[in-house]
Structures are given as structure tokens and as C-alpha cells.
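can u pls check wat happens w/ zinc ion
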Amino acid sequence: MILDAAGKGRGVYAVRDFAVGELVVRGRVERVEPHRTRHSFQKDWDLHVELDETARSINHCCSPNAGVVDNVVGGYDFVAMRVIREGEEVTWDYESTEYESIAVQSCLCGSAVCRGRTRGFKHRTDSVPYTAAYLRDAGRQAGDDHR
Ligand SMILES: [Zn+2]
């Protein structure tokens, strides 16, 4: 369910409880973009997609309750990384799909581990759970420097 969240714009809120690993939102592709847009999701090094309204309304959090999994319809599924209670805002980490991210210049997530802004997966030195498939294949540990 999409609602307007105070101070953060729109957000997506759970309409029931979700167990760990359960599908919360299936993000379906509405448009393929050759370049990053403000609301695009990165699927591969040169592939960005715009997902449907519910998926793109899910806000970023530096310690999110949902993670992304590449899905069978070319988008991302958002699955519960921990129990999500009815009424709780569903959040995900932009850096789990975006190799470089300019989306959040000043993060309002309020997490105790808030990183202040999103810069992208390439800047992460910690392990990021539920990352996009193309990033898992990147061999980051081997020190490869992709775009
Ligand atoms: Zn944050």
C-alpha cells in the first residue's frame, strides 16, 4: 500500500505481517532505460529499468527490512529480510542495485547506521545482503574495477 509519509514523501507500508524471506512487492518493468534516471533500478552494467509505481515508491533505508532479488519478469522482487509488521514502512537499500547512486544526497532514514547519503555499491566495503545479480557476478572481492 502506498501512503504519504511525513517528511519523506511517499512510501510503501505493509498491509499485513510478512515472514523472513517472504515476497513483499514484485517490481514489474514498465520501461527500459539506457541510462540511470532518478527512479530507475539498475539491472546490469548498461541496463536500467523503471519499475511499476509500488516498487518505485519504496523508500531507501541504510538498514532496510527488505532486500532485492532479480525476478522472472525482469525486475526486482522485494523480500522481507526480517519480519515486517503490518503498518511498518517497507524499505530497501538503493546501494544493493545501483553501482553508482545519486538518488539520496541527504538520507532521512533515521537508522543508527545511516550512511548520510547513497553513493552506490562500488563504494561499499561491507557485505551487502540481497544484491542485484549483476553485482554478485562482479567479482568485487577480486578487486575488479567496473564502471
Ligand atoms: Zn540512511
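Residues 66 and 80 are 4 Å apart (CA to CA).
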